[in-house]
Amino acid sequence: PAFFATPFVSLFTGFIAWKYRFHRSALWFVAAGLIYLCGGLLLTMMLNVPMNEALALREVPSDIPAAQEIWQAYSGPWQRYNLIRTVLSGFSLLCVGCGLLSLTQKA
């Protein structure tokens, strides 16, 4: 639930912050929610999960060179997408931190 709810909780927090005139915080929370929605949730659902499912359907070859070939074709792209997810999730967390810090200043 935390993985799926995170962007929506951030967006809702931004709405509440805006309603109570914490505009700077609201923008940070909305940014966090949008970054996580696109870079965490959607990227995972559209790229990593289908890659995992396709790999799971492959028969594991008995000879090591064939298994290495499958893994090498899979691992590079999967790791690239995972790195993008990690970096964007970190930026989302940074935005939440900035939103929390800016709660001390109404704007």
Please write out the topology.
Layout: H1 2-19, H2 23-57, H3 64-101
Helix pairs in contact: 1-2, 2-3
Characterize the overall form. elongated
Poorly predicted segments: none
Helix/strand order? HHH
Distance between the termini: 32 Å
Overall average residue pLDDT? 94
Structural class given helices, strands, pairing? mainly alpha
Using only C-alpha atoms, the radius of gyration works out to 19 Å
Q: How would a textbook summarize the main sheet?
A: none
Secondary structure tally, helices: 3
In terms of DSSP E residues, the strand content is: under 5%
Please give a quick description of this structure.
With 107 residues, this protein is mainly α. The protein is built from three helices and no strands.
Q: Can you walk through the features of this model?
A:
There is one protein chain. The protein is mostly helical and 107 residues long. Helices cover 85% and strands 0% of the residues. It has three helices and no strands. It is elongated.
